[in-house]
Amino acid sequence: MSDFLALVANPALLSVIAMCVLCLFRCNVLIALFASALLAGVLSGSAVQQTIQTFVNGMSSKLEIALSYILLGFLAAAITQSNIITLSIYKLTQMFQKGAIKNSALICLAIAAVSCFSQNLIPVHIAFIPILIPPLLSVFNLLKIDRRAIACALTFGLKAPYITLPLGYGLFFHQTIIEEMNKYGFAISLSDTAGVLWIGGLAMLLGLLIAVVGFYSRPRIYREQVIVEQQECVENMRLGLADISVLVGAVVAFIVQLTTNSMPLGAFSGIVIMILGGGIKWRAMDSLVDSGLKLMGFIAFVMLLAAGFASVLESSQAITQLVEVGSMLVGGKLGGAVLMILLGLFITMGIGSSFGTIPIIAIFYCPLCTQLGFSVEATILLIGIAAAIGDAGSPASDSTIGPTSGLNADGKHDHIWDTCVPTFLAFNVPLLLAGVVGALLLG
């Protein structure tokens, strides 16, 4: 009983619960993170000013990732505003409209593939959705495709690539796990994370197939249809020198990132190529930076504040007690694995960012996994899946907001019941099972 009371009165645990509750009640995640950090500091006996200083110092550990996000947002804005995206999406739209692909499951899988490219190959994130999806709504209606299947396909493409592959946004995800685990004595590299986290990607693929071929494969009629206006005809559009420089810049960014493992350098190299080739107009640079900040700036700040929050938790001296008590209450590896995955689900559902969740949970999970006897591989899997699991299904996540922005263009798609609930069931259940079973098998 005394152990349980010590657990529920722990400042670190109380601050995490406060953060999740604030987020679930629609408090802005930046405010929730800062308020929860202050709560953790005060409950642990630190002065408010000292807590703020610790918070700010902790933010500095994620400056490189924040810079990467901002530069990548700039790069994505330039790619999105070029003719490359418009022409590619137009061709894909024409292919669907002309009936080249009539099977609803194949259409969903094709959309999932295009969505995957937005995370690694051409890192535009969710910016492609408002361009691709609205013109296709009339096609979906004609074929009676359940839009919940399309939502699952889009969310799969927005999540599975960064979980599985250390490329593009995946490089951020994997590097963040590596940096946080290195703090606690785990000497790991990209090959270690990539060699384990494919399990999460495989679980999501299984969830996608079940959703597309099973749960949401039946025809669904959308009554009182409002046909969305088609894009302006681009049949005669041709790629110019500026567009080619954008394509070359994207390729250069990809290659530099692979060879140097530096996303800031890769993104900056791509931007320089685009500027020299005219893909980014000098006079339009400010507007592109603004667009990039709108696209990725918020996530960058979430990462910074999450690092500050984790720093306050670490300095509160409450983590050691929480891990010791928690390891006694969970009842071994099975209970520990389930608890860690569910806690990750709770936190990520609240803040809506897998990337921002990693610094918060790693401070608990690394020592807890060591205490419970989990191997390095199992620890990587638990942290990776616990961070990723709540992104699908969170009302505040880009992985759900993005699909809804396109599918609800005619007002016939509900954000909660047609996007969040289906994606939650399709992906979080398989990820939970994969995380628990995989961790136990890995030792």
TrEMBL record:
Question: What Pfam families does the record point to?
Answer: Na_H_antiport_2 (PF13726), Na_H_antiporter (PF03553)
Arranged from A to Z, the UniProt key words for this protein are: Cell membrane, Membrane, Transmembrane, Transmembrane helix
Where in the cell does this protein reside? Cell membrane
* Putative Na+/H+ antiporter N-terminal domain boundaries: 10-95
Query: What's its membrane topology?
Result: Multi-pass membrane protein
Domain annotation Na+/H+ antiporter NhaC-like C-terminal: ranges = 154-436
GO annotation, cellular component aspect: plasma membrane
TM annotation in the entry: 6-25, 30-49, 69-92, 104-121, 127-143, 150-173, 193-216, 237-256, 262-280, 292-313, 337-365, 372-390, 424-442
Q: What is this protein called?
A: Na+/H+ antiporter NhaC-like C-terminal domain-containing protein
Q: Identify the species of origin.
A: Helicobacter canis NCTC 12740
